[in-house]
């Protein structure tokens, strides 16, 4: 079996993939049509931020699994993967500490103007007067949008810095907020109004597009710091540029609209050039520790897929199928029994969806559960029951809507 690794990946973990008996094509930097062409003969594709467009799934008929060696899957056409029956999995949480560390690096950098200090020294200037203007983080309020793996890691660090931490997240319950030792805001706007630092950690999706809106940015107090280490799409970028130009708030961002996907490119960002903005080059996950953890997790996923047929961290399995009924058939474990059951389902013109066949100890009997998209007629059940030498019991249950 072949695996294509189309982004940087630690050498030692490429060896672990080979140790699983796979042929590994290590081709970082592949893009677009070249990626689709290279994926033609592989079963597994591993990527970081490289885009995986629909074309890959159209061309690579043997592809079974795409692993995002990272957190965000917005760079993969997951809809196309699902339409072609390809599993997509990621490595959630494995780079959370690295992103939280960068978030704090940015927070401190903005408060103490560290990059400007360095730049002035390099230009031969001493300016203690200007660079002494800092407010300090202790006792200040940080608002965290998205309390998943990264948001929680940021909260933990903010508490250690003696900050007041308030969170807003889609599923942040009062209990979880209490467990994290933070306060909970009722809305994003309410959070923004009290945040001297607002930091965002939500995935890019149709739901989060422009979540940090013009109104949210305008609600930030004068002199606030806005930090984005998630994705550019979660912010109204036009409004952010206007706010940053005005200089009413400071901005630190690791992500940009239309940022290059690869390692090196020329890139001109209006936002990144402004004096109140500190930009980094989408390096949130780029520590050796995080890349090691991500690669280990990738190898674990490949191992389980190869040896157990399961896909941990899969992001595109239907949470619920449209099936309304479940056929339960307890049967003798013999050749052809399931084929006969499915033939009866086919003859009734019903679509079988999820199927699970469980074998009992001793391998004499099994229980097969078949989800059906419509109610089968009584004749179909009778046809199955009629094969008494194969069938022990047949039942039909209606599934909860
Ligand atoms: N800069 C980088 O290098 C870097 C590295 C890793 C991750 N990221 C980005 O950070 C994102 C978050 O990563 P994570 O590991 O914390 O993911 P996560 O899934 O653990 O957490 C995401 C959180 O966002 C919340 N959320 C989702 N939709 C929301 C909405 N509409 N409103 C409010 N809250 C919502 C979820 O409930 C969850 O708590 C990733 O999806 C990725 O885009 C960037
Ligand atoms: O979602 C992620 O994990 C990050 O954006 C990291 O992207 P990278 O693997 O390209 O650094």
UniProtKB/TrEMBL annotation:
Keywords: Amino-acid biosynthesis, NAD, Oxidoreductase, Serine biosynthesis. The keyword NAD applies. It catalyses: (R)-2-hydroxyglutarate + NAD(+) = 2-oxoglutarate + NADH + H(+); (2R)-3-phosphoglycerate + NAD(+) = 3-phosphooxypyruvate + NADH + H(+). Catalyzes the reversible oxidation of 3-phospho-D-glycerate to 3-phosphonooxypyruvate, the first step of the phosphorylated L-serine biosynthesis pathway. Also catalyzes the reversible oxidation of 2-hydroxyglutarate to 2-oxoglutarate. Its EC number is 1.1.1.399, 1.1.1.95. Pfam families: 2-Hacid_dh, 2-Hacid_dh_C. Pathway: Amino-acid biosynthesis; L-serine biosynthesis; L-serine from 3-phospho-D-glycerate: step 1/3. One of its GO terms (biological process) is L-serine biosynthetic process. This is D-3-phosphoglycerate dehydrogenase. One of its GO terms (molecular function) is phosphoglycerate dehydrogenase activity. It is an enzyme of class 1 (oxidoreductase). Belongs to the D-isomer specific 2-hydroxyacid dehydrogenase family. Residues 326-401 form the ACT domain. PROSITE patterns: ACT, D_2_HYDROXYACID_DH_1. The keyword NAD applies.
